[in-house]
Design brief:
The structure is a single chain. It is rod-shaped and about 115 Å long. 88% of the residues lie in helices and 0% in strands. With 86 residues, it is an all-alpha fold.
């Protein structure tokens, strides 16, 4: 007999165990849902990052093309100045 004088019946123990198992099951389902949610967020962020990288690459290409155009104009101007001074 326990020290406090209380006894626990088999039914009470089974009820306690069943309740604990149900809590564990709920926690597992919640954790699995969280993992699935995180995987979805990761996929969406990855897609957004890819889109941003593509836009940056496009902007860099536009900048390079603009610089090439400026250099070409300046080269023509320098050639014209050389011919005038000769």
């Amino acid at each position: 007999m326990p020290k406090n004088g209380k006894t626990t019946s088999k039914e009470n123990l089974l009820h306690i165990i069943a309740r604990s198992v149900a809590e564990i099951k709920d926690n597992m389902i919640t954790n699995m849902a969280t993992k699935v949610d995180l995987e979805g967020v990761e996929r969406r962020l990855s897609a957004k990052i890819d889109a941003v990288e593509e836009k940056v690459d496009d902007l860099e290409m536009v900048d390079v093309l603009n610089l090439q155009g400026r250099v070409s104009v300046l080269e023509k101007d320098v050639k014209q100045l050389k011919h005038r001074n000769v």
